[in-house]
Amino acid sequence: MNSAALAAAFAKRFGTEPDGLWSAPGRVNVIGEHTDYNAGFVLPFAIKHSTTVAAAVRSDRTVRVSSTFAPDDEPVEVDLDLLTEGSVHGWAAYPLGVLWAMEQSGHRCPGLDLLVDSNVPVGAGLSSSAALECAVAVAVTDLAQTGMSRRELAGIGQLAENRMVGAPTGIMDQSASLLGKPGHAVFLDCRSGEARLVPLDLEGAGLELLVIDTRVSHSHSTGGYAARRRSCELGAEQMGVPALRDLTVGDLGRAADVLEEETFRRVRHVVTENARVEAAVEVLTGSSPAALGPLLVASHASMRDDFEISCPELDTAVEAALAAGALGARMTGGGFGGSAIALARVSDVPAIRSAVEQAFASADFRAPGIFSVLPGAGAGRAG
Q: At how many degrees (to 10) do helices 312-323 and 293-305 cross?
């Protein structure tokens, strides 16, 4: 809903006007999957789909959280002094986890009333969770005048997701949501936390990036994601390095001798994916975004075969898009469902959209959601 409608819904829900509205976008990752928690490189960008939070400061230490998606439900209510790790479950763990993480970091939060609205597809691999975390984080930072930097807020979101939600994610999603800029991707070094903007002028190159939402929902806190992270940690330990970031493609021959076969394949994906991210940055710095195509194709093959996080719907989306003329395509996000992306010339988009829809229908899959995205602005005040 628009800002005026959200403010009116807040007033109806809580009996007072909000002090303001804050918004944070979801993200699409151009390339760099499962590299973030391995201290590696990623290249996401913020999208225009976003989560908006209307907030008002209370005079006590109570927090009430509600959503426009469940207008008849009672708000989730907690006392900040009694909020502990893992004490909240369901979607409310994300916003309340941010408040818990801020307090753990030494920043006292006020009591708040929060009303959440979002148009980021849930479970599509576009990081609806980070959008929610970052919207709350920038709201609280403004209202409590914490003075926290965007880099610090990314860490707050990660801490909330790791400890309150129980999802062992890195800092990519929050960083993209907080640091995004129109016409640019965010090149993030997940070890140092340093980020720089890289030009990604899709419109100027006559290109579109299609998101193909398979409608197969995924969850980072379930076993597959955690199992992949454990494999990566085991591989780094057995290779004698602090993180897989410290290995290069040249080390893979030794890794094949040291590691058992499955762990080796997990390691090979991360090592080659880091190399692909760096290659993508070089492409965008000195060439047209169209040259990203082969890197996207190689990334999908690596995630499908080495990391084993694809699914039939994702593979079908990628194969159909490429067959219909996409310059490159791959699954994006944590895997086990979610979305694929396809880089295409504007003139080829209708044919690609039709081919993917037909392929899903022929396979008796649920009809996909297909839409274009462009790099957008990061989190901030929305009203």
A: 150
d(CA 152, CA 100): 14
Mean pLDDT of 161-177: 91
pLDDT of residue 28: 95
Find, among 93, 106, 113, the residue nearest to 146 by Cα.
106
Instruction: List pLDDT tens digits, range 187-222.
Output: 999 999 999 999 999 999 999 999 999 999 865 545
Residue 262 burial (CB count, 10 A): 13
From CA 243, how far away is CA 296, in angstroms rounded? Answer: 24
What does pTM read for this prediction? 0.91
257: Cβ contacts below 8 Å, ≥ 6 apart: none
Q: What is the mean pLDDT of the chain?
A: 95
How long is the chain?
A: 383
Around 118, how many Cα atoms within 13 Å sit in the side-chain half-sphere?
A: 26
First to last CA, the chain: 13
- Span 245-303, pLDDT tens digits: 999 999 999 999 999 999 999 999 999 999 999 999 999 999 899 999 999 999 999 99
In angstroms, the CA 182 to CA 209 distance is: 14
CA dihedral 144, 145, 151, 157 (to 10 degrees): 0
Judge whether 24 and 178 are in contact, CB under 8 Å: yes
- What is the set of active-site residues? 173
Q: Which residues contact 132 (CB under 8 A, 6 or more apart)?
A: 24, 51, 53, 91, 94, 95, 116, 118
Q: Residue 169 and residue 211: Cα distance in Å, rounded?
A: 22
Cα–Cα distance measured from residue 249 to residue 272, given in angstroms and rounded to the nearest whole number: 6
So what's the pLDDT on residue 221? 45
Secondary structure E strands in the chain: 20-31, 41-57, 62-67, 76-79, 112-118, 184-189, 195-199, 207-213, 328-332, 339-345, 369-373, 380-381
Query: Residue 319 has what pLDDT?
Result: 98
Q: Closest Cα partner for 289 from 30, 5, 91, 18?
A: 30
Question: Higher confidence at residue 121 or residue 6?
Answer: 6
Give the contacts of 237 (CB within 8 A, at least 6 positions apart): none
Instruction: State the Cα–Cα distance between residues 44 and 172, nearest whole angstrom.
Output: 7
